[in-house]
Amino acid sequence: MSVKLNHLTNAVRFLSIDAVQKANSGHPGMPMGMADVATVLFKYHLRFNPKNPEWINRDRFVLSAGHGSMLLYSLLYLTGYKSISIDDIKNFRQLNSICAGHPEYKKGSGIETTTGPLGQGLGNAVGMAIAEEILRKKFGNSIINNKTYVFASDGDLMEGISHEVMSLAGHLKLKNLVVFFDNNKISIDGSTSLSVSDNYKKRFEAYGWNFLDINGHDEKKISNAISKASKSKKPTLISCKTIIGFGSPNKSGKSSSHGSPLGEDEINLVRKKLKWKYKPFEIPQDILNEWRKMGDKGELLEKKWRNTIDSKNSKIIEEFKNTYIDSDLKDLESLVEKEKSKYFETKPSLATRQCSMAVIESISNLLPQLIGGSADLSGSNNTKTKNSKVINSKNFNGNYIHYGVREHGMASVMNGLALYGGLIPYGGTFLIFSDYCKPSIRLSALMGLKLIYIFSHDSIGLGEDGPTHQPVEQLAGLRAIPNLNVFRPADISETFECWEIALKSKNTPSAIALSRQKVPYINPKNLKENKCEKGAYVVNLTSHESNVTLVASGTEVELALKVQNKLKENNIHSKVVSMPCMELFDKQPEDYRKDILEENSLIITLEAGSVMSWQKYIKNKGANLGIDKFGESAPYKEVYKHLKLSEEDITNFIQKKLRE
Hints:
The strands form five sheets. A six-stranded parallel β-sheet has the order 10-9-11-12-14-13, with helices on both faces. α1 packs across α3, α5 runs parallel beside α7 and α13 runs antiparallel to α19. β6, α9 and β7 form a beta-alpha-beta unit. The protein is an alpha/beta fold. It is built from 24 helices and 20 strands. It folds into three domains: 300 residues, Rossmann fold; 188 residues, Thiamin diphosphate (ThDP)-binding fold, Pyr/PP domains (Rossmann fold, 3-Layer(aba) Sandwich), CATH 3.40.50; 127 residues, Rossmann fold (3-Layer(aba) Sandwich), CATH 3.40.50.920.
């Protein structure tokens, strides 16, 4: 005898209720309200395989409304994912439990992405849907043809990022993207009418989406809406009218069920109302068996898919596996060495943004998995090269995305591209606008994703655009993010090396800050070695008895070398150190760090930005020279001089220091 759907749904509800109550913390209302939609989706429509959570052609299920995390954990446990046991459910929100307060991405767990900051899951889902289109175009519909489903709350749709990514999704006609809007009209403060009166139908139709309006507790209407969405030529938003805290006699439909446990007395009333006779965390075997059948069905689906794969052209399959599944970047080192040798001969003076474009152009043929883009600044960031093929709604056979003026959306979409698997995204904007990207960058680092942020116009060196566009505190802000490598290369050779490190990095995203103004070739010798790998190295020293160490990054390495020459004219010997990446330098053995930054040397750091991140390196009478106020609108050399970052000012400062 088959188990009724409402019994399956109630298993989700009560696991969620009981876990939140035991933790005395969490959000029971959303899982109770969206349990019907989730059950119908998992039982009749979602393609997934708990025995192989990394199956690349699985449908993606993204819980953008991450506060309702117990809904996801309940579904993963019930369908048979090994990553989540009943003991994990019982340890919801406890130390070392995979069932964290908000979903935290873990490869192979079934948790597709880290969500919680609202709107982020929507952006990630758009990236996943774009990735699917790219790979489907390349390898064919029989190999890649999955869908991306998202559960989103009113809060997700209020956040500004939702506009950026939903607009882009409509523009690209991402037909395999389906968003379920938990339209329960309740937020933490109370009714959503306190702050929102949007006409969602008009909003999404204006984006170029399909809009469907259903009762989120009606099994047939839910299933019919999903079937209709699956045949769409556009992305679809399904507005599910639900009751938050469904089944709670005193708290359903109220904000009191949103972010607090229901309480033992109320839970007993819910059990009585929904006719759930079982103890906390108890799932009857017949109900559990029915849920596990959904997972078993996925195993058969993947087996059928693998049979299809085996029947395909062996060259296509080999490319698919080697490039998009088991990529090892084996030829990257030799390519970088070859390119560095070429530029060693010509020693060009180039802005490092131009250097980065040279890197992208040289590696894009080697790495077809690179997917580039820019937030409407392609020509300024130099992210688009002659090898770039633009992706659009009619053709996904490309490697470049015009994100438009949507920095935050771009960064979250890049996270989704990386999460999908097999692709390495990079995207560009001005360094000053990294502030718009920051929430998504933080999640890139938290999830340990391989992607590359290109931030050009990296200092007051951009000149006339003035203080609104001249970054001062942005490098320090990025360096404050754990597990993010922040690179600021000084010339063409360092730019190649920083890109190589970023591409090889497996669990750390990278931000590469690049100049608008030209810099000379400074990298002297030993082209086989990647000198940037250690974060800092000696560029030049005038004597082994030097008593001054000038440490700089990016464009200020040239400035340090000029200061070194002036000091030498005054019989003061010095060492110039380029530090393109603090994070890598800080991980080096103590002996290496002491050799670079000698304790008996006067250490002077130079960077045209906040000195905050440099303070840890100075000792004795050392000093951090930089900018801790906003810039000025003027030609860049005048701005440097005005802010006392000219070679004369720095030389005089050092001489005075030595006399102290």
